[in-house]
Amino acid sequence: MLHIDPHAPLPRAIPRRPSNADGAMFAVALRHARVLGLHDERVLEDWNARRLASGAPCRREASHAAPSNARYYFLRSPEVARIERHPIAPPAPKRYLGFDRVAQSLRHVAIAVNMTMRERLHVDPLEVQVSVFGGRMHIASNFHAGRIREALHLALTDDTLMSGAPRRPAPGDVRNWDAMVASRRVRDIAKLRHRYVQGHALDRVRTAARDEAMAGVGVPAHGSPSGQEMLRQLDDAFDTLRRVLRDAASASPTFRDLVVHTPMRDVPKLASLPPGATETMHAEQCIQTAIATHAQAWHREAVARLGLASDTLIVVPMAGRFVPCAACAEVEAQSRTDGGLFDPANGRFVLHRSSRRIGKAFANEVQHIAQATLAKTPALAAHRAQLIADRFVTAPQTLRAYGTPVVLDYSLDTESESSGDDS
């Protein structure tokens, strides 16, 4: 019987001559992303499966033991440097169409809340991510989630936030972080107030989004509901945003349809952290974990309130100040397939982002993984989460981020950081 040492280095694929069947040996990890050989992936999966079955700990757990149900990602700077990327300048402008228009507004909310927490509440959330579906707006931050409601109210009512920066940065400042985020604060808060609180141009934006979605533009790439089902959800997303934001801007907001998700509320923390490290679950994974936890009930409520068929896919648009980091992109890609939360084959939810770019991999962060989104059973979900965490250390060349473009100046969630358009 062949014995494979689970502690041995990752085996290399055996070189072979190309054949006409090679086209069947590849899988696309993400749209527009690098193509990975299935042979390499199978070697990796087989190796990791044996490693986990043997009880061999990953080296992070050897010195900082996590509870058995907590899988997490952690890298030091030299390990991040092994994830090869191609730096690019801030991209040229793009138009936001269909459901991308909803995602654009979610990004405006994320930036408004994030910058207000920094400017007025003097706390650093690091990142804020937002989603809207089922008649509610969902929001989370990496840190200080308890201040989100207050920050949203201030963003929509405190006029001093509209000063201190030009609406557009000077041409020479397009790669200046402080200038870019300050101008975005002013610009994005103004858009939220104008479009949703005051109601100007919202009907025009909604009509355009409907036409674009019906033409198949700006819709989820990994599965979409049918025409009328999609339009009802699109209308509901705009209606929900207006209802939530008008309430938040009122003198006595109720926040009835705003759901704030707090990272690490139900995730055991490590007994000790590596020196200089922080610990959290990134904001988008926090929201996605909640959806996975309540998947059956929230899907049932979402289809019932819009009069949709019980197996209708519910679109979950999501956006934040940043594009998903390398770890979050890996988790989201896995959640879209093989029975994960956003696998269209489940007939429940489909994730939609307006950007295909992948952000940086961050060092010195213990990032807990939203493993409930990865599979239907806890055991398989934990197994897949561990594989993701291990690949960052043992096989960075297999990551979706490897070899892809990255904006090193900043990874703001838009394709048009350098533009003067309506982004």
UniProtKB/TrEMBL annotation:
Designated name of the protein: Uncharacterized protein
Species per Swiss-Prot/TrEMBL record: Pandoraea faecigallinarum
